[in-house]
């Protein structure tokens, strides 16, 4: 076997790997941004006439951390991160009652996971 043909195959596989990696990274960022946008629309809004009206819903952001061979995209609430758990899960109140959960993060999380998996499969098939 010719040494040049081996190098050609290695080069082709390297390019293929880079294309897939770039496609997966792009998909992750795109899905996360769409998820943050959905959370901005579906998050509960404080209905009292205070300065906090809508602050929680407007606070959703994405944070992308890229390193060699991987990408981490995080959707987080930059303004009122403390409320995410309190709104999503039931908890005790000062008066001894229990709050009703306002599940708004979990459905978006499930949608993002399914969409990301679908996009990764598309990237691999089309590469």
Strand content: 5-15%
**Helical amount among residues, as a percent range?**
55-70%
- The topology string of helices and strands comes to HHEEHH
What class would the helix/strand composition place it in?
alpha+beta
Low-confidence stretches: none
Rg from Cα: 21 Å
For the record, the count of structural domains works out to 1
Give a brief description.
This protein has helices spanning 3-42, 55-58, 83-88, 106-126, and strands spanning 60-67, 70-77. It is of the alpha+beta class and 127 residues long.
Protein architecture, described:
It is elongated, with a radius of gyration of 21 Å. Helix 1 runs antiparallel to helix 4 (106-126). The protein has one domain (3-126). A hairpin with a 2-residue loop joins strand 1 (60-67) and strand 2 (70-77). The chain has helices spanning 3-42, 55-58, 83-88, 106-126, and strands at 60-67, 70-77. The mean pLDDT is 88. The protein is of the alpha+beta class and 127 residues long.
Task: Record the SSE blueprint.
Elements: H1 3-42, H2 55-58, E1 60-67, E2 70-77, H3 83-88, H4 106-126
């Amino acid at each position: 076997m010719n040494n040049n043909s081996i190098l050609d195959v290695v080069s082709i596989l390297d390019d293929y790997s880079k294309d897939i990696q770039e496609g997966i990274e792009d998909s992750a960022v795109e899905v996360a941004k769409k998820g943050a946008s959905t959370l901005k629309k579906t998050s509960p809004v404080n209905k009292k006439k205070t300065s906090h009206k809508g602050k929680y819903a407007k606070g959703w952001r994405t944070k992308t951390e890229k390193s060699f061979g991987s990408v981490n995209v995080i959707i987080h609430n930059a303004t009122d991160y403390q409320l995410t758990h309190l709104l999503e899960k039931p908890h005790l109140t000062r008066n001894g009652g229990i709050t009703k959960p306002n599940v708004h993060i979990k459905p978006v999380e499930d949608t993002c996971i399914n969409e990301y998996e679908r996009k990764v499969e598309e990237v691999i098939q089309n590469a």
